[in-house]
Amino acid sequence: MRGLTWTVGSTRIVDDVTFDVADGEFVAVIGPNGAGKTSLFNLISGLIRPTAGSVTLDGVDLTAAPPHRRARLGLGRTFQSSSVFPALTVRENVRIAAASRGSCLRLWRRASADRAASSAAEAALDDVGLSSHAADLAGTLSHGDKRKLELAVLLATEPRIMLLDEPMAGVATGDVPALTELIREIHRAGRPVLMVEHHMEVLLGLADRVAVMHHGALLAIDTPARVMDDETVQHAYVGEPL
Ligand SMILES: Nc1ncnc2c1ncn2[C@@H]1O[C@H](COP(=O)(O)OP(=O)(O)OP(=O)(O)O)[C@@H](O)[C@H]1O
């Protein structure tokens, strides 16, 4: 992203943010409450249009593209609040995502597309360890398993890059290590990740770089250890744990 800016009235909610996520890299976005992290994700995924700046994926300028086109081009995203269909089964949730990937209007290719979507869904459920819950209604899953389901839904779309907005939000403390490990494995499988996370301890050993936002601007972007040592970052977090 280059110079990404979003102004509401006279307030700069996201202020001239520029950084790259390299192929295979894991970049975390942190910042005090209201720093503009979710707004930045909304700009990258196209839910809101920037006042200025651009978003590029693999050299393709996506700045004017609607969210569904960005998703087609490989920009996959999860949301801060749970976004599964509670009345559908776990398998159906993932299958819908997998089918959306290879959307094909030619009737004679529907059967093979269906089979491909089913096997992509099963593979994604296996990746996140939810195969044994495939027939359960998504609404009956624990909060931690719902988060895993969201990851499976995302994986089934075979994204080029994964944007995860606070995947640990609402998850019981005891489930955080397993979910962290799962995200680590998904990343190791070769996908770059951009993840909003409040807890610095989750990011140590997970993120290659940490981008710190403050009042909409990018305050620092560096390794987790160096970011934690940075005095300007510590100052931005006065009154809140880093
Ligand atoms: N549509 C909007 N109109 C006006 N102000 C907005 C809008 N969306 C967000 N804001 C404001 O922009 C600021 C940044 O919000 P945002 O949700 O991006 O921050 P955040 O860093 O994700 O916060 P949190 O850590 O609490 O999730 C906040 O002060 C918020 O009130």
TrEMBL record:
| SMART domains the UniProt entry points to | AAA (SM00382)
List GO terms (cellular component aspect): plasma membrane
Which UniProt keywords are listed?
Answer: ATP-binding, Nucleotide-binding, Transport
Which InterPro entries does the annotation name? AAA+_ATPase, ABC_AA/LPS_Transport, ABC_transporter-like_ATP-bd, ABC_transporter-like_CS, P-loop_NTPase
Citing just one GO molecular function, the answer is:
ATP binding
- Which superkingdom is the protein from? Bacteria
**Classification via Pfam families:** ABC_tran (PF00005)
Q: Which residues form the ABC transporter domain?
A: 1-240
Keyword rRNA-binding on entry: no
Q: What is this protein called?
A: ABC transporter ATP-binding protein
Species assigned in the record? Virgisporangium aurantiacum
Taxonomic lineage of the native organism: Bacteria, Bacillati, Actinomycetota, Actinomycetes, Micromonosporales
